[in-house]
Every structure is written in C-alpha cells, then in structure tokens.
C-alpha cells in the first residue's frame, strides 16, 4: 500500500515513472488487499471472538477460497514486475531514489520493495501448510473436521491454479520465441499451438544421392519443414513447407547407404529424411 500510493502519486505529478509502469508493477494487488481487508480477515476475526460457541473456520475458508484464485494473476506477473523495477532503477535515478527513500521508512521494516512483493507469492502455499497443520491437530470429533478437510482441498486446488498460471505463461513465452525464430508468419502464430519437438534433419535427394541440412518443428497440429537462413537477420529459419498432422504417416526406411532414414507423408507431400 505504501509503495503503491507513493509511486502512484509521483507518477501523476512528476516525470519519474509513467502511471502504466506502476500499474504493471503492482498488478492486481489492490484487489487482493481489499478482499483480505474487507472480507477474509473480518470473517475470521468474527469466528475467533465467538470461538467458544462455534469453533469452526472451515466453512469460512470454503466460502471465500474461490477468490484466492486472484493470486494467480499476481503470481503470473511477478517476474515481469521485478524486471520492471530493475529496469527503471537503472534508467531513472529519481525512481531509484524514491524507492530507496520509501524503504527507509519504519513501516517498511527495513525490507526492500522486492521483498514485500514476494510475500503475496508465498501466501497461498502458507495457507495450505497452516490448514494442513490445523486439520492434523483437530480432535476427531471436532465439528470443523469435514469443513476443514474440504477447505484444505480447495486451497490445494487454488495453489495448483497458481502453478498452472505460471506454467501457461512459460509455455506462451517459449512459443513466442519459436514464432520469432520462424519470422512471425501470420498463418503460423497461434497461441493454442503446442511445440512437441524441434531439431536439425537431413533431407535426402534421391535424384543426386545427396543430403542437405534442414530443420523441423513439430507442433500438435502441423509439421514445419524449414531451411536455416545463412544470414540470420530477424528470422532464423524460412518455412519451406507446412504439413498437417491430421492424416500424416511416418514410416522407417531400411537404406544401407543412408541409415536412420524415414518417410513422412502427408496431404501436402512426401519427404525422405535422415536423422543423426
């Protein structure tokens, strides 16, 4: 809250850092904070005050656990946020000074902005551990047993959701790098594609009994048959042929002269290839 408010104030009045950058650094932390301050914490406090009559928290956590998925967005953005802080600290001394200034305040407990930002990333795994401990120590006849176990299951799913968000982000990041190497061809760039394997291959020319260096990218829906570019400006490969995986057949060949050869035949055409 302290960092966000101060940086936002500076972004609106000064020239140190654009508003957009501040928003990107803090992602959806305001929503997460509001959820805790106005819903989760008051509900738990109410239970604590009434613990003698109603010793249960499982039902509260069950009711509010779906909102914890908001952390997925924050976790997904975390690496980018830290990169932004580093980049702006190097680029703008006033930005660096402002952050150093805020870090010195008593409220920040001598911890860096990055350190504070890591706390929400670790929050869901902590809830999971606390709940596990709580369930383990509950008396067998506790009225909270059923609800607490169900709540733990829900928190486990939230943690999984958070990890899945990171994995999906990494998948898209890697996919984008592959598309860049292929020269960002319109009909190839599709976020739903999955890269299965890539690597160099020799194309056999039966006409003159020779081989030439090619490169393959196998996706879930297509095989790209490429030629490495000699001058690598921009794209690394040129796509020579795109074959649909649907209806494609692969057959091993027994060739004494060219070992490790196989035939790939698809709707588009047939290729005779040799692996290493």
UniProtKB/TrEMBL annotation:
Annotated source species: Pheucticus melanocephalus (Black-headed grosbeak)
UniProt xrefs under InterPro entries: DBL_dom_sf (IPR035899), DH_dom (IPR000219), FYVE_RhoGEF_PH (IPR051092), PH-like_dom_sf (IPR011993), PH_domain (IPR001849), SOS1_NGEF_PH (IPR055251)
Source lineage: Eukaryota, Metazoa, Chordata, Craniata, Vertebrata
Pfam families documented for this protein: RhoGEF, SOS1_NGEF_PH
Identification of the protein by name: FGD2 protein
Biological processes per GO annotation: cytoskeleton organization; filopodium assembly
GO cellular component, one term: cytoplasm
Annotated gene: Fgd2
Every PH domain range: 194-276
Any GO MF annotation of the entry: guanyl-nucleotide exchange factor activity
Domain DH: 1-165
